[in-house]
Amino acid sequence: MRVAFLGDISGRPGRKALQIWLEENRNNHDLCIVNGENAAAGFGITEKIAKAFVSQGVDVITMGNHTWDKKEVFNFIDNYPILRPLNYPEGTPGKGFIRFEFGAFNVTVVSLMGRIYMECLDNPFKVFDRIYEQFPDDIFIVDFHAEATSEKQAFGYYVDGRACAVFGTHTHVQTTDLRVLPEGTLYMTDAGMCGAVDSVIGMDLTESINRFVKQLPVRFKLPEKPSKIQVCGVSFELDLESKKAVSFRRIQKVYIRGEDGNYS
């Protein structure tokens, strides 16, 4: 089976890039996972957006530290394949993993969040141990939403041979270290971002630069009608018998806005 994992969808530009990419590529994949925690103007997700993602062919929407930014999320998080990090406290609304049946095999997608420079949640390493012990025969794909590359790498090696794939999210800049770890886990420190190319991790250049130049708080906003938008992530072929990725490639597709306002 072939799986697509796409990095953080950053606002309207990211949603547009995702829509175009799915129209071109969704039929070539059996499972499509996207990180949607920045989908609504860069902060959180709305029900309208979640519904649109599902209608376009997204199977799983992973989240992260911006899960709760839109307060309405509490009203619909259980109605869609949305994953908040599994290491939130017991009793937190939503779910942290989802299982899919592919014939005799089960594929489990897990959302976990790191703790360095992030919220102080349960230990994601130990939380993975528990879910793995619960479903030892499943094929695990993990979105590890974290700030520190060291924590992401440590987690990748910690679950090497147990998880089929681990992809980092949150920092919005695609890394070039897509590889198979020694025990067979497909790993990438950050899958990258779906959004405006000429931006600072998805946000408007002027406000972002001013924050660093003037050292004053600013209200971030998304670029309006960016000239270029991109989709970043990973596409890989999964062998269900071995629970390993047998082929893989980075996704980094740029769409350019034409004079008619459409992207191609």
3D structure, described in words:
Strands 1, 2, 3, 4, 5, 12, 13 and 14 form an 8-stranded mixed β-sheet that branches. A 6-stranded mixed β-sheet has the order 6-7-8-9-11-10, covered by helices on one side. The two termini are 28 Å apart. By secondary structure, it is α/β, with parallel strands linked by helices. The protein has 6 helices and 14 strands.
Summarize the structure.
The chain is α/β, with parallel strands linked by helices and 264 residues long. It has 6 helices and 14 strands.
Alpha carbon gap, first and last residue = 28 Å
Give the class from helix and strand content and strand pairing. alpha/beta
Write down the Rg.
18 Å
Spans of at least 5 consecutive residues whose pLDDT stays below 50 are none
Mean pLDDT: 97
- Strands, total number: 14
Percent of residues in helices comes to 10-25%
So how many helices? 6
Task: Characterize the biggest β-sheet.
Answer: 8 strands, mixed
H and E string = EEHEHEHEEEHEHEEEEHEE
- Strand percentage: 25-35%
What's the structural blueprint in terms of helices and strands?
Layout: E1 2-6, E2 8-9, H1 11-25, E3 31-35, H2 47-55, E4 60-62, H3 73-76, E5 82-83, E6 97-102, E7 105-113, H4 124-134, E8 139-145, H5 149-158, E9 165-169, E10 179-180, E11 186-188, E12 193-196, H6 205-214, E13 228-239, E14 244-256
Parallel strand pairs: 1-3, 2-12, 3-4, 4-5, 7-8, 8-9, 9-11
Antiparallel strand pairs: 1-13, 6-7, 10-11, 12-13, 13-14
Task: List its traits.
264 residues; alpha/beta; eight-stranded mixed sheet; six-stranded mixed sheet; 6 helices
